[in-house]
Design goal:
This protein is mainly alpha-helical and about 325 residues long. It is about 65% helix and about 0% strand. Helix 3 packs antiparallel against helix 13 and helix 13 runs antiparallel to helix 14. The chain starts with 12 loop residues before the first helix and ends in a 7-residue tail after the last helix.
Length: about 325
């Protein structure tokens, strides 16, 4: 009869800290950074509910009208904000629809390449756009897509067609905006999926080959299920940013001819809050944006766990 396993001894807190204090010391610096630059500034969120004055402390500011919700009501009654909200949702949903699958597909294709040297060259070329700023990318877009002097439009005209206003017509602008976003990010985004693919047990592919499965069958029944947890986590994080997005990309691509589809919440906050000095209004807009992002994140995580996948937590 086998003997019962001895119970694990409890390690005293002092002994544990003496053994692993280096790890906690390394963790202290990022925690301090998060507290000073992320959590401490959250005190100023109350500006959204008060009448801001640059000469007064935030604790001395009077409460805004309508029990502090004056600027939220003002924002939703503003046509520019409603257009910015609509554009933010539209562009981010299109980014999610077309941009999110792109690195997955690219990682699956790269995984099937047999020549390692060619694979490394392709990876290097596709990673490079990630390190370019959006100002540089927009200057490249101007050289390629302007109606009269752009290389692509000159090629179209030489072939007998008519030039296309890629950057001046709202519908074409949206397509160009999404396409350049995919081009910049799909190579870099594939790194995570390639790392997830490398963690799949090779014996699964060998067993599938014995059963007569081809490359597509292996990809569909082994590779995709193997990286599904990674896909789910990244999808949840992208859904949490559905009302967010960066400032530099839409700001760089904007021009007066497409402002009705190019003005997003980030550029609206810059234009109205910083240039227009309406700090309470734009703080209210930013707070609304953050709350909606958290709600989307929680809903996506809850739905993921309900469907049997592992969420973020």
């Amino acid at each position: 009869m086998s003997k019962p396993m001895p119970a694990k001894k409890k390690v005293k807190f002092g002994v544990y800290m003496k053994r692993y204090w280096q790890l906690y010391a390394m963790l202290a610096l990022p925690l301090i950074y998060l507290f000073v630059f992320k959590y401490l500034p959250m005190v100023y969120v109350q500006i959204a509910f008060k009448k801001y004055s640059i000469v007064k402390s935030i604790w001395q500011l009077p409460l805004a009208k309508n029990h502090g919700f004056e600027y939220f009501i003002k924002a939703f009654g503003n046509n520019d904000f409603r257009y910015a909200l609509r554009n933010t949702l539209t562009l981010n949903l299109l980014d999610l629809l077309f941009g999110f699958p792109a690195p997955i597909i690219f990682a699956l294709i790269l995984n099937e390449l047999c020549f390692q040297r060619y694979k490394k060259v392709v990876q290097t070329i596709t990673y490079m756009p990630h390190f370019l700023s959006w100002v540089i990318i927009y200057s490249l877009a101007l050289q390629l897509l302007t109606p009269e002097t752009g290389f692509i439009n000159m090629l179209i005209e030489n072939l007998g067609g008519t030039s296309i206003p890629f950057l001046n017509d709202p519908a074409h602008w949206i397509g160009s905006y999404i396409a350049f976003g995919i081009w910049q990010n799909f190579g870099w985004g594939s790194i995570i999926y390639l790392a997830a693919i490398s963690g799949i047990n090779p014996e699964l592919y060998e067993a599938a080959a014995v059963d007569g499965a081809g490359r597509f069958r292996k990809m569909w029944h082994i590779t995709l299920p193997g990286i599904r947890p990674t896909i789910v986590v990244l999808l949840i994080m992208n859904l949490g940013n559905i009302l967010g997005g960066g400032f530099d990309r839409p700001f760089a691509f904007q021009n007066n001819l497409v402002m009705k589809v190019a003005d997003v919440i980030a550029t609206y906050v810059y234009r109205v809050g910083i240039k227009g000095l309406q700090f309470s209004l734009t703080t209210a807009v930013g707070l609304f944006q953050s709350v909606v992002g958290v709600v989307f994140l929680l809903m996506a995580n809850w739905l993921s766990r309900k469907l049997g996948d592992r969420g973020i937590w």
